[in-house]
Amino acid sequence: MTTDRLTGKRILAVDDEPDVLESLEEILFMCEIVKATRFEEAERLVQEQHFDIAILDIMGVDGYRLLDMLRETDTITVMLTAHAFSPKETVKSFKKGAASYIPKEEMGNIVLYLNDVLEAQEQGKHFWSRWFDRFASYYDEKFGPGWQDEDKDFWEKFKVWY
């Protein structure tokens, strides 16, 4: 798995669990990681600094509010969550402009997922162009084969788009 696209990237990682932030720092060793454990701290950082990528928890740090702020800065933003992990929140993240939605259980593979997003950007594709390939079977396992039924229209369009 290549880390070239990530080398030297400035990443804002926001999570109320310090061990998650430490793990991200270890996994993304090729990047400059700036960490925040509270919304207010992250808000200040977003206002004062430039980031290439932001990795946001949803619960505990008001991740969707941060996502709204980061969209204004053109920062590539990825949602990384455990407690808010659901098909409904996946759709919400997509519609609010997140570049991806990753379950914390899959954090060990975040280099792969961030590379997917950066590759899509380089190729002029939508950030989510590889998401379904990566996560459809995972969602089948976690939520059962009918996990798309609650928002069937969205997922039918999603498969056509990407």
Structural notes for this entry:
The protein is of the alpha/beta class. 46% of the residues lie in helices and 15% in strands. The model has no long low-confidence stretch (mean pLDDT 93). A five-stranded parallel sheet has the order 2-1-3-4-5, sandwiched between helices. The protein has a single domain, classed as Rossmann fold (3-Layer(aba) Sandwich), CATH 3.40.50. The longest helix is centred in the C-terminal third of the chain and has 13 residues.
Order of helices and strands: EHEHEHEHEHHH
Based on the coordinates given, report the CATH architecture: 3-Layer(aba) Sandwich
Q: Work out the radius of gyration.
A: 15 Å
pLDDT below 50 for ≥5 consecutive residues: which ranges? Answer: none
Number of strands: 5
Distance between the first and last residues' Cα = 23 Å
Q: Total helix count? A: 7
CATH topology: Rossmann fold
- Strand coverage percent: 5-15%
The tally of domains stands at 1
CATH class: Alpha Beta
The global form is globular
Structural class: alpha/beta
The main β sheet shows up as: 5 strands, parallel
Fourth-level CATH superfamily: Response regulator
Query: What is the spatial order of strands in the main beta sheet?
Result: 2-1-3-4-5
What's the pLDDT, averaged over the residues? 93
Binned, the helix content reads 40-55%
Gist of the model:
By secondary structure, this protein is α/β, with parallel strands linked by helices. The chain is built from seven helices and five strands, in the order E-H-E-H-E-H-E-H-E-H-H-H. The protein has a five-stranded parallel beta sheet, sandwiched between helices.
